[in-house]
Write a structure and sequence with these properties.
alpha+beta; 3-stranded antiparallel β-sheet; 4 helices; globular
Length: 117
Amino acid sequence: MLDLDCLAQNIYYEARGESRVGQEAVSHVVVNRSRAWKRSVCSIVFQPSQFSWTMGARKSPFGNSWTLARDIAQNTLEHKNVDPTGGALYFHSLSVHPSWAKQKTFLLQIGRHKFYK
């Protein structure tokens, strides 16, 4: 699978209900990890227990949300959009309270996600 496909799927499943900036933020977290940890985007996305959507059955992405996710993924990989998180490596939805968040530096909230270093 190509990095573009992995990144687009992660945007789609993690943030498709968010604004474009919110989706870009989620996209940049994956790319920031990829660069910092010197690993492929796909290995970041499919690292065990990182993104809940990778652990179960899911419908194939479709429609305008999928088209937007692919566009954002392409632009992020080609450095055509600015990282709205300022270098975040982690994020979570407001609907969860992961224990790891206490050990990270909170950066900002965009939509329904909190971002950390």
